[in-house]
Amino acid sequence: MKLRNGTYHLIKSAIADFKRNKIRTFLTSLGITIGVMSVVMLIALGLGLKNYISEQFEGLGANLIMVMGGSGFGGGGDEEGGGFSGPAGMFGSVIEFDERDVSSLRRIQEIEYVVPVYFKSLTIEAEENEEIGYIMGVNEEFFGLMNSEMLEGNVFDKSDLQGRTKVAVLGYNLSENLFGEAGDGAGRTIRVDNMRLKVIGVLEKTGDREMDKAAVIPYTTTFASLNPDKTFWSIYLGVTSEDDVETASEKAEETLLKRYKEDEFSITEQSEILSTVNQIFAVLNAILVAIGSISLLVGGIGIMNIMYATVTERTKEIGIRRAIGATKKDILVQFLAESVVLSTLGGLVGLLLSVLIVMAIRIFFPAAINTLAVVIAFGVSGFIGVFFGVFPAKRAADLPPIVAIKYE
Predict the structure, then answer these.
(1) Rounded Cα distance, 339 and 285, in Å
(2) What is the pLDDT of residue 351?
(3) DSSP secondary structure of 7-34
(4) For residue 136, what are the β-bridge partners?
(5) Domain-by-domain residue ranges, the chain?
(6) DSSP letters spanning 106-142
């Protein structure tokens, strides 16, 4: 009870002192507020980006397996390479696949979707507008594999593939940039490399840069002028049951090894991509926390400076307290408590502001505040109060009572 009353008295005394100089208190705690808010917000945005990428994969209709030439992720590539969720040159391409590979992979029992992918970046024209976009040559299974949703119109079917029909399904952003309103693209015509394509549908916005700026067409239609070699930079495989992914990957590798060498292609599962993403974001979050901590360090130095100034201003008060019986420990604890309370209040305000900002951001982006961010906010705030408060508090406690009383 004595300890509880003592703590209450220290906090009450600290708050009373803060009220005597509200502006100074506000400016001092502002450094900690900004520092805590920086750390919490950086962690929240890092988690949001991680959640966003995970949602993109989880939105697929089947477990995805990507067959690529060369080393796949991290391999070299030319400017015309690309992927459904990465920069166009991200995936290497030592070899190129053809319809024979597609037929071979289709014989694997565990695989439900086999989608050959031709990908090229070029200028797409419509009426008087033109836009740099992507041509994706695929089959009709692509839309089921990617769990595509339509904004307007329909997707092409197997008969369009067999007849090499000159039709296209546009990504949301491409249609919007060419026709003003995304939904207005359905029924219109675009021109690609001197070839006219009728737009039969527009996809809902996916958030994926390539997909939203792509014109998806039957891969057989690219065989004319775009892809005379009739090859594909990648083949996407879809497995409905997660339990069959590993088996399907092994069988796909066995099938391709009959024609290619082991180092000429790579097979990457969706789970492997997500695991890599998680590892990257673990490192990224640590870097973001380190960057945000610089603000906390600056805030802590601000508290130390103000507490030194406070000690100087209250030197006579310290002398009087020592004269009537206060010990060095009492003075040390008093000033240390003021520093801790000041930094904790700043941390609480910073955390509250972070929560409000994240709640607003979540409407557009899946940012999130986790337990780690809260622990860091409170832990670092308290640590800064102790660490940067102990030096001025010790200076106050070491003042000789007689000198302190005579101080003007």
Answers:
(1) 29
(2) 86
(3) HHHHHHHHHHHHHHTHHHHHHHHHHHHH
(4) 119, 216
(5) 2-55+277-406, 63-239
(6) HT-TT--EEEEEEEEEEEEEETTEEEEEEEEEE-TTH
Query: Which parts of the chain sit beneath pLDDT 70?
Result: 1-20, 56-62, 71-94, 314, 401-408
The letter for the amino acid at 86 is: G
- Predicted pLDDT at 89: 40
Residue whose tokens read 């939105």: 59
List the structure tokens of 374. 């809260």
* Amino acid of residue 297: L
Residue 398: CB atoms within 10 A of its CB come to 10
SS3 172: helix
CA–CA gap between residue 222 and residue 234 (Å, rounded): 15
Structure tokens, 223: 């065989």
Q: Give the model's pLDDT for residue 271.
A: 72
Q: Cα–Cα distance between 106 and 116 in angstroms, integer? A: 11
Could you tell me if residue 3 is left (phi over 0), alpha (psi between -120 and 50 degrees) or otherwise beta? Answer: alpha
The pLDDT value recorded for residue 1 is: 39
What is the pLDDT, as a whole number, of residue 82?
Answer: 39
Residue owning tokens 């040390």: 332
For residue 198, report the phi and psi dihedrals to the nearest 5 degrees.
Answer: -85, 130
Q: Collapsing DSSP states into helix, strand and coil, what is residue 289? A: helix
Check if the beta carbon of residue 155 is closer than 8 Å to that of residue 143. yes
Residues 6+ apart with CB under 8 A from 229: 96
Phi first, then psi, for residue 266 (nearest 5°) are -140, 150
Q: Are 377 and 350 in contact (CB under 8 A)?
A: yes
State the Cα–Cα distance between residues 203 and 182, nearest whole angstrom.
Answer: 9
Cα 63 to Cα 275: distance, rounded to the nearest angstrom:
14
The mean predicted confidence, pLDDT, of the chain is: 81
Quote the tokens at residue 358: 């994240």
CA distances to 221, 349, 357 from 190, in Å: 14, 54, 42
C-alpha pair distances (Å), 286 with each of 159, 289, 374, 376: 52, 5, 15, 12
The SS3 call for residue 351 is helix
Pairing type for strands 129-138 and 214-218 reads parallel
